[in-house]
Design goal:
The chain is an alpha/beta fold. It contains 14 helices and 20 strands.
Length: 480
């Protein structure tokens, strides 16, 4: 189905049927707030419970399907995402606000994720082991964990659901998917493709609405065996307490305050480009944003000048306009939070080098000029995740000092370094306290994602490690 044929009100998918909601919500284009992207159905706790029960019923069949069928389902979804990359990328740009080129690239990445897990469905893991008892064979197989509640963030409305839903279905789980309320049309568009992929009714369900009602129902429901969440730290902490208290599995990714170290031996032009992409790509609204840039003192001023010039030349505008380098932030609430971070940085004494003002464009939208500060480690802009187009630069005496500053954060998701020294690059990869490290690359994008400290919980959700969360191990003994 093409988006031009979209129902006037995107509906919930419950047990294979499209259902109206109890109320209706509105999604607005952040590049032009006069444009309504979609009016969408919003569910209550009762409808969320219906979706969970449908998933539990479907699990009995879907969890026992042959790997070939699972692979075909996921390959279908991946192929359609790739074929409709421009159309779906345009929807993403309209609803979330990232530039069209970034939006199309996200849809392509999502298609590849589904195709990767189509392959994983065919590689069902298992092993045989020798028993300590004579003549006994031990077999260990992986089976679906059960019903998985997927609670997705708004900043990557195709990619984040893809790297949760695809492995869940690949390993035979049934899914109830709640997209973020800021991006319901993208969530519906993905669900509509999945609904036509050949899944049995109820194996995949879409339920839209508030986190307070719909999300909490998925977290608390006794038939939900696992919850995968991407979003804010406070919400993730509440989910962990609630779901873990009843014995459900929980997988959390809750952002980071990511450092990018620039050493004196680095190619400064390349380092400035890494900082620009890492800190200001997607308007800084991604969990790997390098909003904490640590620069060795000998090149500090030169680097800041180079980054300043790039920011001054960065075109901020409508997400669909040709040449836009950075789109708006997602909505008025996010813009207000960003301006609050900027005002606090000024009050605390951080030196503002560039940007940080609300700007006007031909269309009314949530536009903010990219902000750059010189800060000290104690400033909150150097410690708090800002989730907007802003970054600060910290001065380091040498490599050891830079590494210490980079590790001086509890939110170790990703860390990057720009250097021509193999010695320092190898040392940094080993000693940076982060789940991912990047050498001479922006802290944006990754094949496998996870972290080892505060921002996350439980195994990774992408790559082959996804089996650790989305499956359970069954061990069988047989007298040979």
């Amino acid at each position: 189905m093409k988006l031009g044929d979209m129902q006037q009100t995107p509906r919930h998918l419950i047990n294979g049927r499209w259902e109206i909601g109890t109320t209706t919500g509105v999604s607005v284009n952040p590049s032009d707030t006069r444009e309504v992207v979609a009016e969408y159905a919003r569910a209550d706790r009762n409808q969320a419970g219906q979706a969970v029960r449908a998933a539990a019923d479907a699990l009995r069949h879907w969890g026992r399907t042959a790997p070939r069928r699972r692979a075909d389902v996921l390959d279908f979804v991946g192929s359609e995402l790739l074929a409709r990359r421009d159309e779906l990328g345009t929807l993403l740009a309209r609803e979330e606000g990232k530039p069209l080129s970034e939006a199309v690239a996200e849809v392509v990445r999502s298609g590849h994720i589904f195709k990767f897990f189509a392959g994983e469905a065919l590689r069902a893991p298992g092993e045989l082991a020798a028993s300590m008892h004579q003549g006994v064979q031990v077999e260990m197989t992986r089976e679906p964990v059960g019903v998985v509640g997927v609670l997705s963030a708004w900043n990557f409305p195709f990619a984040i659901p893809a790297w949760k839903i695809a492995p869940a279905l690949a390993f035979g789980n049934a899914v109830v998917f709640k997209p973020a309320e800021r991006v319901p049309a993208c969530g519906w568009a993905l669900a509509e493709i999945i609904a036509r992929s050949g899944l049995p009714a109820g194996a995949f369900n879409l339920i839209m609405g508030s986190g307070r009602e719909v999300g909490q129902t998925l977290v608390d429901h006794p038939l939900v065996d696992a919850v995968s969440f991407t979003g804010s730290g406070p919400v993730g902490a509440r989910i962990l307490r609630s779901a873990a208290a009843r014995g459900a599995r929980v997988q959390l990714e809750m952002g980071g305050k990511n450092p990018l170290v620039v050493l004196a031996d680095a190619d400064l032009e390349h380092a400035a480009e890494c900082a620009l992409q890492g800190a200001y790509g997607s308007a800084g609204q991604h969990c790997q944003a390098s909003s904490r840039i640590v620069v060795e003192a000998r090149v500090h001023d030169d680097f800041v000048d180079r980054l300043h010039r790039r920011l001054a030349a960065l075109p901020v505008g409508h997400a669909l306009e040709r040449g836009t380098g950075m789109g708006p932030v997602v909505d008025e609430r996010q813009l207000a939070q960003d301006l609050e971070h900027i005002a606090r940085a000024r009050q605390e004494g951080a030196e503002q080098v560039f940007g940080g003002e609300r700007i006007e464009r031909p269309t009314p939208g949530h536009y903010l000029s990219p902000a750059l500060f010189l800060a000290r480690p104690e400033h909150r802009i150097a410690r708090d995740e800002t989730f907007g187009p802003m970054a600060c630069v910290l001065r380091a005496d040498d490599y050891e000092h830079a590494l210490a500053l980079a590790n001086d954060t509890p939110r170790g998701l990703c860390a990057g370094i720009c250097t021509t020294s193999l010695k320092h690059a190898m040392h940094f990869k080993r000693h940076a306290r982060a789940g991912m490290t990047m050498v001479n690359l922006p802290t944006a994008g990754a094949d496998f994602q996870g972290d080892r400290r505060e921002p996350g919980h439980s195994p990774r959700e992408r790559g082959r490690h996804a089996a650790e969360f989305f499956t359970t191990v069954r061990t069988g003994y047989m007298l040979a």
